[in-house]
Amino acid sequence: MGKEFILTIDDKGRITIPKEVRELIKSKKLKLRVEDSKIILEPIVVDVDKYYGIFRKDLEDVDIDNLLKEAITEVF
């Protein structure tokens, strides 16, 4: 079993994820679900690198790879 952390919910319903945990999950997006009164947080990892360079159209100053990364991130 991994480490355990005690977290406090503030007046606005927020919690702070400890730095040690944030460094382990390496994600800024989390999926939260509730199962049997348990809160489960899972990192969302989008592998945008697998799409790198698949677009061949030149859109002048638009970075299409960055545009794709932003679009995929919005979906999750």
TrEMBL record:
Q: Which UniProt keywords apply?
A: DNA-binding
- Protein name as annotated: AbrB family transcriptional regulator
Gene3D superfamilies assigned: 2.10.260.10
Database matches in InterPro entries: SpoVT-AbrB_dom, SpoVT-AbrB_sf
User: Taking every annotated instance into account, which residue ranges of this chain make up the domain SpoVT-AbrB?
Assistant: 4-46
What molecular function terms (GO) are annotated for this protein? DNA binding
Q: Which NCBIfam families match?
A: lp_hng_hel_AbrB (TIGR01439)
Q: Does the keyword DNA-binding apply?
A: yes
Q: List, alphabetically, the Pfam families matched.
A: MazE_antitoxin
